[in-house]
Amino acid sequence: MYLLQHLAQFEVLDYPSCLRMLDEDVKNDRVKLSYAFRPLTKNKYVVKRKDGSVRILTKGRALFPDLKPLVTVNGSATGIKRAETVSRIAMYLAEQEIYSYAEEQDEACFIPSACWRKIRDGILSTTRFAGILFIGEHRLAVYDIGDGNIEWQMKAEHSLFYRSHGDYATRATGMLLICDNDKRVGIAQRIIRTTMWHRKQLIGGRSTQERERPVRYVKAPIRLAKYFERVYLTTPDTLGESLDAIFNEDNVIERYRDGNHKSNNPSLGDYEIYPMRYFINTTTDLLKYIYYFATMKDAIEFQRKLDAGELYSPYSVNYTICIPEEDAPILRMYPDVLAVEGSKFYVH
Hints:
- This protein is of the alpha/beta class.
- It has a domain at about 250-345.
- The chain is about 40% helix and about 15% strand.
- The protein has 13 helices and 14 strands.
- It has helices at about 1-10, 15-20, 30-40, 60, 75-95, 115-120, 155-160, 185-195, 200, 240-255, 285-305, 330, 335-340; strands spanning about 10-15, 45-50, 55, 100, 110, 130-135, 140-145, 175-180, 230-235, 260, 270-275, 275-280, 320-325, 345.
- The strands form three sheets. It has a six-stranded mixed β-sheet with strand order 4-5-6-7-8-9. A five-stranded mixed β-sheet has the order 10-11-12-13-14.
- A hairpin with an 8-residue loop joins β10 (about 260) and β11 (about 270-275).
- α8 packs across α11.
- The two termini are about 40 Å apart.
- About 35% of the residues are buried.
């Protein structure tokens, strides 16, 4: 019934995800789960198609006459895959008791992309977001990036963050990227490295123009930019822990800051206790890692010029970053950064 109710809302879901919803014991016994799924097709509640998608039928939808679908699925293969992605994200969030609605609620909720486009003006059609997650003060654009090889449209994703379209309260405040369970570290390193190669353009001081017209379609690897504000990376299996960390992030930073000077520039960390500046990254915020690495690279170059006599400065600033233990491989991707004298890192 839980699976059928989900399909009544989202029309379609991929077969492995259907088995995941039926796996109440979390034992991942695919043979047993396939037998549990079979009565749904045998009794005409759902149909399993050759492409691996599962669609609800009239008999299944009739069990929930008051439940309106949140998405409309067209017949194209691309449309079905997009709908499957949205449905799968909604399933992951429902596992954490965050449910899907057509509009904002008084509690944490997920609004699918099709519904959000009716609320928010100016979103470019090529954006790949699955929907908007309301959690705490955040409005996070959620993406299922799988193994990290998706068609990333930088300018289209930027449209979710435009300040000049519609109500300011509908502007996204960050991103939540959900990737495959066994590829998290590799994907994080690849996204950080790709962005670092273009960091002067993407996180530098240049103003970012908001576009009124469609932009040229370009397939590119995932890159981040400063207007995304926060970019959290997680997996289906660690989603609950990540959501807890995101919800408590500001409180954790304030507790560590303990009344000391708060930074107004994310590239300079969260706060300063001279001569140390602190980056508190308990949420695997990839953009914060990029700010930290870029700042440390600049510090290395600054120190080189000091040692060469090209510059003189009476002030010396060091940097500290606080991370989750599982992010240690991400921090070690730039050995020269870890080797900077006076820098420190802590495990939260």
